[in-house]
């Protein structure tokens, strides 16, 4: 991580109001736009952004970490992951008859940090795959139909695409499971 990115994280953790305002003016509009497009409102965007900042600060204070992308992109990714988690949680809380377990803010923060670590491990290992595998998996994760992938990448049949995606996913899984961090994250 470049020195200015590291300094930005340090300034954020120390509560530097100027840095926080800078992040709000630079990154928050993108986060708000994403959340508005994905079944949220402005209040949701503000909550998610605040939680993401708190998550970064807590994580920085507990254990140093490296941001591979730009700080802004990392913060946006953290917000995106938090919002997706929130949407998933909302789907599971539907009726009064269900037993709803309220998780403390601290537990939620811990889970969010853990999910972020899983995402980072996944992204890191994805970079270790061949360009072809990365391209195939990116299209697969975007839910592009096999037939379209076949045509786009010039494969002979969608069966070949399925096999190739299966092999790429297997390679990625193996890389992730062989990383010592996987055991630590998996057991939590």
Automatic annotation (TrEMBL):
Domain called RNA polymerase sigma-70 region: residue spans: 23-91
Family matches, as Pfam families: Sigma70_r2
Keywords noted in UniProt: DNA-binding, Sigma factor, Transcription, Transcription regulation
Transmembrane segments: none
Domain of life assignment: Bacteria
InterPro entries named in the record: RNA_pol_sigma-70-like (IPR039425), RNA_pol_sigma-70_dom (IPR014284), RNA_pol_sigma70_r2 (IPR007627), RNA_pol_sigma_r2 (IPR013325), WH-like_DNA-bd_sf (IPR036388)
Name assigned to this protein: Sigma-70 family RNA polymerase sigma factor
């Amino acid at each position: 991580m470049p020195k200015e990115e590291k300094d930005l994280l340090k300034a954020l953790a120390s509560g530097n109001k100027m840095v926080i305002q800078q992040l709000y003016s630079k990154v928050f509009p993108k986060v708000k736009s994403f959340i508005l497009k994905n079944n949220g409102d402005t209040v949701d965007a503000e909550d998610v952004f605040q939680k993401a900042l708190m998550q970064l600060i807590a994580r920085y204070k507990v254990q140093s970490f490296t941001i591979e992308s730009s700080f802004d992109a990392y913060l946006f990714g953290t917000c995106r992951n938090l919002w997706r988690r929130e949407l998933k949680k909302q789907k599971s809380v539907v009726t009064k008859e269900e037993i709803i377990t309220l998780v403390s803010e601290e537990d939620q923060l811990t889970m969010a940090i853990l999910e972020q670590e899983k995402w980072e491990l996944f992204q890191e290992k994805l970079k270790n795959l061949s360009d072809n595998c990365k391209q195939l998996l990116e299209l697969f994760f975007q839910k592009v139909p096999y037939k379209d992938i076949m045509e786009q990448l010039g494969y002979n049949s969608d069966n070949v695409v399925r096999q190739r995606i299966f092999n790429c996913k297997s390679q990625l899984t193996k890389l992730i499971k062989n990383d010592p961090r996987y055991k630590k994250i998996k057991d939590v």
